[in-house]
Write a structure and sequence with these properties.
Length: 71
């Protein structure tokens, strides 16, 4: 097994977006397309790559710091 982080699980992308924006987001009030756009913007990667273990998606590794940057 080359990379354990790819086989154990992922972070919640909705929670990461809220952490990045430093505020609660009312996800149920957004249309599906709006949720997708918000996740892409906040996670700084395409929605297709967001759930790909081969990408540099933050759900598999990086987390935002207090200033909204990924570390």
């Amino acid at each position: 097994m080359d990379d354990m982080r790819c086989t154990i699980g992922v972070r919640n992308p909705f929670a990461l977006a809220e952490l990045k924006e430093n505020r609660r987001i009312e996800w149920k009030e957004l249309e599906a397309g709006e949720r997708r756009e918000r996740l892409e913007l906040d996670c700084e990667c395409s929605y297709d790559k967001l759930f790909s273990p081969q990408s540099d998606s933050p759900v598999f590794g990086l987390i935002p710091d207090g200033a909204g940057r990924w570390k």
